[in-house]
Amino acid sequence: MDLNPDDMTPVVNRLKRAQGQLAAVTRMIEEGKDCKAVVTQLSAVSKALDRAGFAIIASGMEQCMTSPEADLDRKELEKLFLTLA
Fold this sequence. Notes:
Elements: H1 5-30, H2 35-66, H3 74-84
Helix pairs in contact: 1-2, 2-3
């Protein structure tokens, strides 16, 4: 499965935001911030990464549905999907 860079722009943006959030979480821990705040931010990072992964898999599913010669089969897509579940 080849990812179309144009389709991946929102995914890349989401990953960049998650990277910034993760840096903020690290900073919060180093500064001894409140545990609840740290966990809340860490949860946001986790959700952002999951959504990016799901968007990539959705792109692969779309390619399989629209292109019969796509090189990614259903079992591979299912395996990818389950890695995020």
